[in-house]
Design brief:
This protein starts with a strand and ends with a helix. It has 15 helices and 17 strands. The protein is globular, with a radius of gyration of 23 Å. The relative contact order is 0.17. It is α/β, with parallel strands linked by helices and about 425 residues long. An eleven-stranded mixed beta sheet has the order 4-3-5-15-14-6-7-13-10-12-11, sandwiched between helices. The chain binds nicotinamide-adenine-dinucleotide. The site of nicotinamide-adenine-dinucleotide (NAD) has 19 residues, from loops.
Length: about 425
């Protein structure tokens, strides 16, 4: 079994890497089979048989619980740790006690601090916006901090009372409107956590020759957490990436010292030199702007909760969850898990009608991450052809005039044929 390794910050990928995969519950069975079929064909074609993925099934979720009485066996975590890169289908969230969410457990265990969601439109797919071809965004959502850290206490518990007591008596806080009946949550946002996320986003923009990084935040209200995120982002760009970025702060400084023409001239020069322009936007304005002028944005760096909302809105703008890919990545250790962004879709499980594209596009991102770009590109091109010709699963086909509705396996077979 060949392992992907990381050496001096770069992935070293053998020709026959072992990739652990979680099949997933519900529709996971169908989308995993369809995805592996397409990926195997694309890799075989692109490298004339000299490269091949060795898939290693590991258990999690309901399938795992039924077989081992454990929702997330240690062997599964060990496999993702050992082989660095893996992929997963959707998992049933255990009800009551124990693990809150298997996805969160995997992210925490491997410290997968980036949730990466690229958002693009495929010609032919129905969109609620007028010019979906203008959408080409790459969301870097911080995955380990923020209000999502799960530090909260329910109103009336001894912990909530103790917390309120510390606020009132030790911190002099008088602003809690209803202290007796308040629940509390803590929102940790660190300089280290913010900078490693924004660093990954800047490096991604540079590597993929993308023009702009926008830091999306609510720093106008939450000045030290969301505002800190913004400030640390600018600081990082202006120090560690001084040669490859130009920031809006720098633009404003030139403008007030030398005038708007000088600032615009410097901005044009920076753009012509291929520098990434770094600016920021308040989250609510950003959500509006993405609908009005989606072409204004390219790479987006944001905190956990904002990232959750933004990911779903942008996914909806280009066709919804059936076609939205995602990955959770630690760029320092190399660990990455690519995943379907939708759930187990129990209402359609077993009917061979689920759209496999969320997992398939996530697997395509995985090939890109591994540096197998030729195979990845061939899948993207094949999907472009499928949608242009109106060949899609029910969730998309029902909105496309003159389309043909394909089953999950027919869809995969036609993509394989196109490859
Ligand atoms: P869901 O995403 O499974 O389904 C929502 C709706 O979208 C359903 O009508 C479903 O049929 C449809 N849908 C989803 N994916 C589709 C696809 N690829 N093609 C066509 N239609 C698709 O969300 P839910 O119903 O809220 O959750 C069901 C289960 O999945 C729950 O146990 C939940 O906890 C779990 N879940 C897991 C993940 C994950 O593992 N990443 C994410 C979300 C939900």
């Amino acid at each position: 079994m060949s392992k992907i390794k990381i050496e001096e910050g770069r992935l070293v990928v053998p020709n026959n890497p072992t990739i652990p995969f979680i099949e997933g519950d519900g529709v996971g069975v169908e989308i995993t089979a369809a995805t592996q079929k397409v990926i195997n064909k694309a890799v075989d074609n692109a490298y004339k048989g000299s490269r091949k993925i060795e898939w290693l099934e590991v258990l999690a979720g309901e399938k795992s619980f039924n077989a081992t009485q454990s929702w997330l066996p240690n062997e599964t975590l060990d496999a993702f740790k050992e082989y660095l890169v893996g992929i997963k289908g959707p998992l049933t969230t255990p009800v009551g006690g124990g693990i809150r969410s298997l996805n969160v457990a995997l992210r925490q265990e491997l410290d997968l601090y980036v949730c990466l969601r690229p958002v693009r439109w495929f010609r032919g797919v129905e969109s609620p916006i007028k010019e979906p071809q203008k959408v080409d965004m790459h969301i870097f959502r911080e995955n380990t901090e923020d209000i999502y850290a799960g530090i909260e206490w329910y109103a009336g518990t001894p912990e909530a009372k103790k917390f309120m007591d510390i606020l009132a008596n030790q911190m002099g806080v008088t602003k809690v409107r209803f202290p007796e009946t308040s629940s509390f949550g803590v929102k940790p946002v660190s300089e280290e956590g913010s900078k490693r996320l924004i660093k990954a986003a800047i490096e991604y923009a540079i590597e993929n020759k993308l023009p702009k990084l926008t830091i999306v935040h609510k720093g106008n209200i939450m000045k030290f957490t969301e505002g800190g995120f913004k400030n640390w982002g600018y600081e990082l760009a202006e120090t560690e990436f001084a040669d490859s970025t130009f920031t809006r702060n720098q633009y404003e400084a030139i403008k007030s010292a030398e005038g708007v023409d000088a600032a615009n001239a410097t901005l044009s020069r920076a753009k012509s030199e291929g520098k990434v322009y770094v600016d920021d936007c308040i989250a609510d304005a950003f959500l509006q702007n993405t609908l009005l002028t989606p072409e204004s944005y390219s790479v987006i760096a944001t905190l956990n909760l904002n990232g959750d909302y933004i990911s779903d809105q942008l996914a909806a703008m280009v066709g919804g969850i059936g076609i939205a890919p995602g990955a959770n990545i630690n760029y320092m250790s190399g660990h990455a898990i690519f995943e379907a962004t939708h759930g187990t879709a129990p209402d359609i499980a077993g009917e061979n009608c689920v759209n496999p594209c969320s997992l398939l596009l996530s697997a395509t991102m995985m090939l890109e991450y591994m540096g197998w770009k030729e195979a990845a590109n061939s899948i993207t091109v094949a999907l472009e052809r499928m949608f242009e010709r109106g060949r899609a699963t029910h969730d998309l086909a029902r909105f496309i005039d003159g389309s043909t509705t394909l089953t999950t396996s027919q869809f995969a077979d036609e993509v394989v044929e196109l490859l």
